[in-house]
């Protein structure tokens, strides 16, 4: 039985189990070798954040209204934040972060990691999308800063806050709440980008599996 491992900097935080629909049931272990187990989740994990970037780049071509473009990008970013935080992280990589307020009014952050097998392709796309988008928005911020486009800079800062919050939360889930987040984040991001680039360039088809299994 897979039990969630909770990484939390606050002692005494109640353990709230992750939902069971992200586990691999007995007899379905071969699903881990499929290209995608949750194709729709992967799609929505990528589509909202990609759409926000595309709309930001192309909005001036279709509309001269800053307000309309601002609202549309914010809606896409909000949908992306909710989807990544509440659905795709839990189902694709078995991670979850959340916050609660105790009876004394003190806020507590909880970072959970469930020790279960995940699909390699889904995990790769999850981290690739999670890391690349804040980097892209950081580039937009530099362009706005040097171009003195201060109204667009506000939108970029909101995008950096929402995408960066998910990146920060899931890295804390992955590395543990007590580790140094600055050093660990830079090392983790560099490692993930290198692994993804290597996998896409040198990936080979997996060998066929046989139907013989051993009983322990």
In words, what does this structure look like?
Helix content is 59%, strand content 9%. With 216 residues, the chain is mainly alpha-helical. Strands 1-3-2 form a 3-stranded antiparallel β-sheet. A hairpin with a 5-residue loop joins strand 2 and strand 3. Helix 4 crosses helix 5 (181-202). The two termini are 16 Å apart. The model is unreliable at 1-10, 19-30 and 209-216 (pLDDT under 50).
As a percent range, the share of strand residues is 5-15%
Structural class: mainly alpha
Measured between the Cα atoms of the first and last residue, the distance is 16 Å
Q: What's the total number of strands? A: 3
Mean of residue pLDDT? 76
Largest beta-sheet characterization: 3 strands, antiparallel
Rg result: 20 Å
Membrane topology: Multi-pass membrane protein
Family: Belongs to the TVP23 family.
Main location: membrane
Pfam families: DUF846
């Amino acid at each position: 039985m897979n039990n969630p491992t909770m990484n939390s900097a606050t002692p005494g935080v109640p353990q709230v189990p992750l939902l069971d629909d992200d586990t691999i049931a007995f007899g379905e272990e071969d699903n881990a070798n499929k290209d995608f187990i949750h194709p729709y989740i992967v799609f929505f994990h990528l589509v909202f954040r990609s759409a926000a970037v595309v709309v930001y780049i192309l909005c001036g071509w279709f509309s001269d209204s800053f307000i309309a473009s601002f609202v549309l990008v914010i809606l896409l970013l909000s949908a992306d934040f909710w989807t990544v935080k509440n659905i795709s992280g839990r189902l694709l990589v078995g991670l979850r972060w959340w916050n609660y307020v105790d009876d004394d009014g003190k806020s507590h952050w909880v970072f959970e990691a469930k020790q279960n097998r995940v699909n390699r392709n889904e995990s790769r796309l999850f981290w690739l999308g999670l890391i690349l988008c804040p980097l892209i928005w950081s580039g937009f911020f530099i362009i706005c800063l040097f171009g003195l486009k201060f109204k667009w800079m506000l939108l970029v800062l909101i995008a950096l806050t929402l995408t960066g919050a998910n990146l920060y939360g899931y890295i804390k889930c992955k590395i543990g709440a007590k580790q140094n987040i600055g050093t660990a984040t830079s090392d983790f991001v560099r490692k993930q980008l290198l692994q993804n680039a290597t996998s896409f360039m040198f990936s080979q088809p997996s060998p066929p599996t046989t139907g013989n299994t051993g009983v322990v």
